[in-house]
Fold this sequence. Notes:
Catalyzes the oxidation of glucose 6-phosphate to 6-phosphogluconolactone. By secondary structure, this protein is of the alpha/beta class. It has 2 domains: 8-149, 3-Layer(aba) Sandwich (Rossmann fold), CATH 3.40.50.720; 182-418 and 438-483, Dihydrodipicolinate Reductase, domain 2. It has 14 helices and 16 strands. The strands form 3 sheets. The protein has an 8-stranded mixed β-sheet, sandwiched between helices. The ligand O=C1O[C@H](COP(=O)(O)O)[C@@H](O)[C@H](O)[C@H]1O is lined by residues 216, 218, 237, 349.
Amino acid sequence: MTTSTPKAVIVIFGATGDLAKRKLFPSIYRLYLNGKISEDFAIVGVGRTPFTSEEFRENVKRSVNNSEEVDHKVDTFASHFYYHPLDVENVESFLELKDLLGNLDEQYDTEGNRLFYLAMAPQFFGPIADNLKNQGLTSTNGWSRLVIEKPFGHDYESAKELNEQIRAAFTEDQIYRIDHYLGKEMVQNIEVIRFANAIFEPLWNNHYISNIQITSSETLGVEDRGRYYESSGAIRDMIQNHMMQMVALLAMEPPISLDAAEIRSEKVKVLRALRSLSEQEVNDYFVRGQYGKSVINDQELLGYREEKSVDPESNTETFVSGKLMIDNFRWAGVPFYIRTGKRMKVKSTEIIVQFKDLPMNLYFNKGENVHPNLLVIHIQPDEGITLHLNAKKGDGLATSTPIKLNYCSNCGDKLNTPEAYERLIYDCMLGDSTNFTHWDEVALSWKFVDTIAQVWEKEKAQNFPNYESGSMGPKESDGLLDKDGFHWWPIGTTIE
Ligand SMILES: NC(=O)C1=CN([C@@H]2O[C@H](COP(=O)(O)OP(=O)(O)OC[C@H]3O[C@@H](n4cnc5c(N)ncnc54)[C@H](OP(=O)(O)O)[C@@H]3O)[C@@H](O)[C@H]2O)C=CC1
Ligand SMILES: O=C1O[C@H](COP(=O)(O)O)[C@@H](O)[C@H](O)[C@H]1O
């Protein structure tokens, strides 16, 4: 039975790693503090490091105390944590883990519900799923669910192979593929803004929208993830998953209900309608970039090629911008421009919907630029929306001036916005897969991205590095819009 305070044993594979420390423990703690999970839960951390449960609990306490919550409940919270040293390549130790889970099921009255969170490198996903099933860890009276971290494959073929391995042990409805963007407040708000407002939905099509721009820019470089990033690049790291998911949510038809399967089915239709590119077209529709070294605020910043574990002649892109066309009735002719990169000017994710100009507008002086209506969806750091309109100037003349209507959902109390992982772990415990990616979505986005990645792997970029840290990427990215008569709208503005 689904309850709003679910009970379960959560097993975290990779519990000594970075993701567990920075995101998972603090998120579970917040669920606990907010009463979203009852006292009937246990967490088992798994890794090769030979910790005792006591040492593990101290790590957990340090990680949650680093978050903004400082609370007396931390000791009780940490008492729910257990550590099981295990090399996932050793089948025997899964049997010991099974005994531990059986005991914890009884001790915490969790009704046999088990959530297995794979916070480990993807080559382990298949073997872990296999061992969980074959060693009987999923044979319980309750539910068993598998949460899988990114990256889900390196391309369509490897993703398909991985999916087959996992599907041999778990059914599709037991698999929760994480895309943490789907846990963000304003990404979840896209559907509500679109489908709960009579002023938007009738205009949400090629009659009234001229283009849509989605930017997710970061100021940090690749940091210490050079090894992973070298085989990924921005196209696989950000475009294949987060950016494509935002496109699907912006472009989908209204679902017939809020059921996860109905929403997914609409998103899948968008991905199917994406205009696929031939190899010759890739560089007409997509631009790649790589950051060079630079000095910002007297601080010397390394170029990508000088970063740790990066090839000094690396061909890996740290920036991508592109134009997507969705060839269906609603969107024919409307470009969706997407852009993401590291070491850019601002850390910001924003969606800008630009409406078409009116056929005739008497309220602008000759020669003055018309200000189009824009709907800005601020995903982060500010969360909210801004609607750019035109209104009468106070000077009595028959001209208009641009004004903004703002709504900010996190400006008052930034600390209380749930972290994406917090929502997603809770949804998984409730059995709600709406904000997780189904295999059909993963497969279609890989197929789209594969052509671009293959062309870029074959053709070494001659101009890398081609953008300065602290910029908005290479100038060719502006050219992409310029040739369609558009420009990137400024992003990263705070909601006043
Ligand atoms: N870190 C992040 O911000 C993000 C990470 N991810 C994804 O999450 C996953 C984990 O990332 P991250 O935490 O950064 O990785 P880390 O390298 O920090 O951690 C890896 C974990 O895997 C464990 N491990 C490795 N080999 C084995 C083995 N043979 N048996 C048992 N445990 C093993 C390690 O434990 P030990 O050393 O004790 O054996 C450690 O706990 C990856 O898929 C990554 O792509 C996704 C988004 C963001
Ligand atoms: O998945 C990833 O996302 C982060 C950016 O996430 P955000 O929530 O801070 O926007 C990115 O830095 C990382 O490279 C990528 O793997």
